[in-house]
Structure formats: C-alpha cells, structure tokens
Amino acid sequence: MKTFIPAAIIIAVACIALASCEWLFGNKPKSIANTHTINGTWQIKSMADSSANARNTTPMLAAAFSNNDTLPVSISFNIDSTFTISSKNDSIYNKGIYYVDTAKQTIFIKEDSLYTPYSIKQWSDTAVQLYTAKDSITYTLIKQ
C-alpha cells in the first residue's frame, strides 16, 4: 500500500503535465480577431463595382462618395461597436453600429434597421478589402 500512493501521485502528475502542455503549447486555430483589429480610423481608398449594370443602393458608403468626390472619406470604427463616416473636414455623413463575426470573416454594419454583411476579402495591418454581395461592391480601406 505504501508504494501504491506515490505511484498514483506520479501518474496523476504526469497526466496533468501532458494535458497542460497540449493545452498551453498545442496548435491553435488562427482567427482574424487574434491577428487584426478593425478599430481605428480607415480612409476609403477605392470602391469597385463587380457587376456591369447593378444599381448601388448601399446608403452607408455610396452616399458618402456621392456628396463630395474630392474630399477623402474616412470611417472610424470605435471600440464600443459604433462607427462614423466623415470627410477630411470632419463633416459627418453617417453614424451607426457594427460588429465583427470572425468565424464568418464578416463585418456587419447596421444600415437603417438591418445589418448589412461585408465579407472580409483581404486583411492586413494597414489595409482591408470588404465586399458586399448586396451591391457587388468591393471597398478598399487603408489604415490612417
């Protein structure tokens, strides 16, 4: 009986050590949330329409470009899940709410009463490309 207790303790410690090593140092899936953040101010560099004859009805960003094409338009994503679209002279075009679904690699932006999905096509520390199937538009945003 005296040798049974120390042997059981040694086996238990070995099992815990092996389990914790896998838990601490095992392969972890990479997600967008761990590598990039949308928070901050982004300049809207370009918009590209991938459909030949589509009418763009997205009010969020299309309206911002139609107001004054000469001013750079920026979008600020805040930590509290709000965003603001404004021009260089701080004229605010639109405000709203957003959230990021890292599993779907999508940013959902609330327009009117509905959330519009913007698929993340490419994302680096300094740029992001968002695509909306609703209007077949790809937006390129550059971090400021």
Automatic annotation (TrEMBL):
Domain of life of the source: Bacteria
Protein name (Swiss-Prot/TrEMBL): Lipocalin-like domain-containing protein
Organism from which the protein derives: Limnovirga soli
